[in-house]
């Protein structure tokens, strides 16, 4: 069991830091390709604290990796609407390649990135 898993598992459910711990665990799962677990932790983190923009961005990445392109696009659109600084990362992030390269989303993805430049 990872230290981050222990921290989440053994935390008081009302602990102020729990959403950030879940967001961290979700990011670890994302980077270790445990995408389903990443989505679960990231969704719980966001539900508890909607201001966790990195968690939202990572959720878009995990959804893209799972082939859930509609969900990935919708989450990414929300992130970029509020936090346009993520656009430069999204434009090159390998985690979003499925979304960026999909024929059904490529043009919308490019337009979404371009819209943040204005």
In short:
The protein has 118 residues and is an all-alpha fold. The protein is 71% helix and 0% strand.
Q: Uncertain spans, ≥5 residues at pLDDT below 50? A: none
Percent of residues in helices: over 70%
Number of helices: 8
End-to-end C-alpha gap: 45 Å
Structurally, how many domains make up the residues?
1
Share of residues in strands: under 5%
Question: How many beta-strand elements?
Answer: 0
CATH level 3 topology: Serine Threonine Protein Phosphatase 5, Tetratricopeptide repeat
Structural summary, described in words:
The chain is mainly α and about 120 residues long. The termini are far apart. Helix content is about 70%, strand content about 0%. Helix 4 (about 55-65) packs antiparallel against helix 5 (about 70-80). The chain has one domain (about 5-115): Tetratricopeptide repeat domain (Serine Threonine Protein Phosphatase 5, Tetratricopeptide repeat, Alpha Horseshoe). The protein contains eight helices and no strands.
């Amino acid at each position: 069991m990872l230290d981050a898993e222990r921290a989440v598992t053994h935390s008081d459910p009302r602990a102020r830091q729990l959403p950030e711990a879940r967001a961290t665990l979700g990011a670890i799962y994302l980077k270790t390709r445990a995408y389903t677990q990443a989505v679960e932790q990231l969704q719980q983190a966001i539900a508890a604290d909607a201001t966790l923009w990195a968690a939202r961005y990572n959720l878009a990445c995990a959804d893209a990796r799972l082939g859930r392109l509609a969900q990935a696009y919708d989450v990414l659109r929300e992130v970029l609407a509020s936090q346009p600084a993520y656009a430069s990362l999204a434009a090159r992030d390998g985690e979003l390649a499925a979304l960026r390269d999909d024929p059904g989303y490529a043009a919308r993805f490019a337009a979404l990135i371009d819209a943040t430049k204005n």
